[in-house]
Amino acid sequence: MSSVFPEDSVGLVEPRIAHFAEPLALACGRELADYQLIYETYGTLNAAHSNAVLICHALSGHHHAAGYHSPEDRKPGWWDSCIGPGKPIDTNRFFVVALNNLGGCNGSTGPASLNPATGKPYGADFPVVTVEDWVNSQARLADRLGIEQWAAVVGGSLGGMQALQWTMSYPERVRHCLCIASAPRLSAENIAFNEVARQSILTDPDFHGGHFYEHDVLPRRGLRLARMVGHITYLSDDAMGAKFGRELKTDRLNYDFHSVEFQVESYLRYQGDEFSTRFDANTYLLMTKALDYFDPAAAHGGDLARALAVAKADFCLMSFTTDWRFSPARSRELVDALLAARKNVSYVEIDAPQGHDSFLLPVPRYQQVFSSYMNRIAI
User: Fold this and answer.
1) Which residues partner with 98 through β-bridges?
2) Is 216 a catalytic residue?
3) Is the pLDDT of residue 2 over 50?
4) CA within 20 to 30 Å of 170's CA: 61, 70, 216, 266, which one?
């Protein structure tokens, strides 16, 4: 590994493409006849193929979870703090697979991909996908890689929902499930936040009913607002207070509605502007709907324990005290259901001031617990 990278980095990584010609039936009643998944791998698959770990990403995540794409690249993958030599997901022990889900905008088949039926981008015609659909497509990728069983499936937030779904859809193929800062279903408040974000996109004049690609425009205003709303919910009040307080960006108040006067305003506008240039609006709609629809207990009369009865994995759940988007109470609800279903479950509530984003950050106590559990996994 080149010395230009930190010693605990996986170093240079190269995305790969897996193409699937077999139709994939979707929960919405439609199917994808042909699709591709982009993914990265870190570490080495052992001879028994028993050390594979799947990383499931959250709403705006993707396949680039660790390492660097070039020697000049100064920004590592989104979960680089947790994946690498000696890190919680230790690539000296594990073979790690990270992918971009169907409907994404980072290389897997999604709304910006060409629809073979029309020769134009799918746009709004791309089918609605669910967490269960993603897990089914991930299972096909596992087959392609020769992985019959994951040592662990790991994810935070929406990624945690996928990890949970794996234990129900393919119980024999998961030995350990790590569900971090997640929930067994969204609360009404969470669905409401997602709807506000979607409406900001849907009502943007440049959205054109989802077919903005053909008009050579981007619904940037809608995406900016969606990201700003979302970002507020990912942080805690304490974190925002410590980072920004009521600090002014200017040396005086302007008494208008257009100036950026407070530091927190500047931060949110920057986040919105940056996001609107790199993320697809249709993908944002799809991801939030997948969040809203996830509710494995619904098919069992609302009984979560019954839904989880088929699982054979051991479970590790982690939550964060200041996470109000996916509060510790939601993780405890899942713990109670797992215990009622007589599953092996470990749970820890970590005191961290950063809110929901804590699962992405190198919080010392979090990483200690994470490492401790992963080190217990036999390979």
Assistant:
1) 40, 55
2) no
3) no
4) 61
